[in-house]
Amino acid sequence: MQTSADIQALNERIAHESRVIVRLMNETSKVIIGQEYMMQRLMIGLLSRGHILLEGLPGLAKTLAINTLAKAIDADFQRIQFTPDLLPADIVGTMIYNPASNEFTVRKGPVFSNFVLADEINRAPAKVQSALLEAMQERQVTIGDQSYKLQEPFLVLATQNPVEQEGTYPLPEAQTDRFMLKASITYPTKEDERAIMRLNMQGAFEKVQPVATIQDIMTARQTVREVHMAESIEQYILDIVFATRFPSEHGLKELAPLISFGGSPRASINMALAAKAQAYLNGRGFIIPEDIRSIAKDVLRHRIGLTYEAQAENITSEAIVDKVLNTIQIP
């Protein structure tokens, strides 16, 4: 049980450690303009060992964002373009026969990196999508009869285009559930786009320099785990998640015909972890209800199944989460 003195000491430690995160945000802002929401979600995933599913139109700097973050941490980055002809071995690697030595050797795939961009993940068939499952969940890859641990930090950023659905393979619920957050990004403002346009015309983008180390990130992750969560906050998380499963029991009878299934236990776990990371980013050693509310949509939007009735009425999972948040009592 943490005392007020413990939390005060943790606040001071976070204030000192979070300077690294501030440096990272400042360094990436040299190249990434007007996408604070996306960068903050990347930071939450990085600090809480979670993977991010980004949904947005082409040209919104999704690839550039994770590449820039990798450079600012001096970490390895690999981009995998998912296409219908991609094979699982193209992601995780394979065994290569060497005639000279008359033996097989392992050739590791691009998943053996700190940051992996799975670009347009829904363009590859299920067997390729599932090749990421072991890497994302177990943080290891099996090639032949050997398992190989992935290096930390390990972050998968997967993207998908919400508009064009021809020739795509929608991610099954079992796979989307392994993403901590599903972030939906939109166009920049006019002012931000003016700045982007000018910098591109001038070719004046600054070169991103490493301002943090992998050890800095590992230290921050450990501190994030120590962020205090009161029992009332734990109950708040459970009430929100259970309201998506059993809406009638939480004063949301009107949602029952609209939800085919609610958030899994991973929803509760990831909401707690993401809230801790959010509190850390805000320089606090404890979680407040606003931390939960700020990340609830990103945690739940891909974990709520909609019935045909909801789809016919154009009701989205975001609208359901809004209704839940507005109904469940805030501690």
Kindly summarize this structure in a few lines.
A hairpin with a 4-residue loop joins strand 3 and strand 4 (103-108). With 331 residues, the chain is an alpha/beta fold.
Strand content: 5-15%
Poorly predicted residue ranges: none
Anisotropy-based shape: globular
Second-tier CATH architecture of the largest domain: 3-Layer(aba) Sandwich
Distance between the termini: 19 Å
What does the model show?
- With 331 residues, the protein is of the alpha/beta class.
- It has 2 domains: 4-200 and 210-215, P-loop containing nucleotide triphosphate hydrolases (Rossmann fold, 3-Layer(aba) Sandwich); 227-327, Orthogonal Bundle (Helicase, Ruva Protein, domain 3), CATH 1.10.8.80.
- Helix content is 47%, strand content 15%.
- The protein has 15 helices and 11 strands.
- It has helices spanning 4-17, 19-28, 36-47, 62-73, 89-92, 126-129, 131-138, 173-176, 190-202, 214-226, 231-245, 265-281, 289-300, 308-312, 317-327; strands at residues 52-55, 77-81, 93-98, 103-108, 115-119, 140-143, 146-149, 155-160, 181-184, 259-261, 305-306.
- The strands form 4 sheets. Strands 2-5-8-1-9 form a 5-stranded parallel β-sheet. Strands 3-4 form a two-stranded antiparallel sheet.
- A hairpin with a 4-residue loop joins strand 3 and strand 4.
- Helix 13 (289-300) packs antiparallel against helix 15.
- The radius of gyration is 21 Å and the shape is globular.
- It starts with a helix and ends with a helix.
- The mean pLDDT is 87.
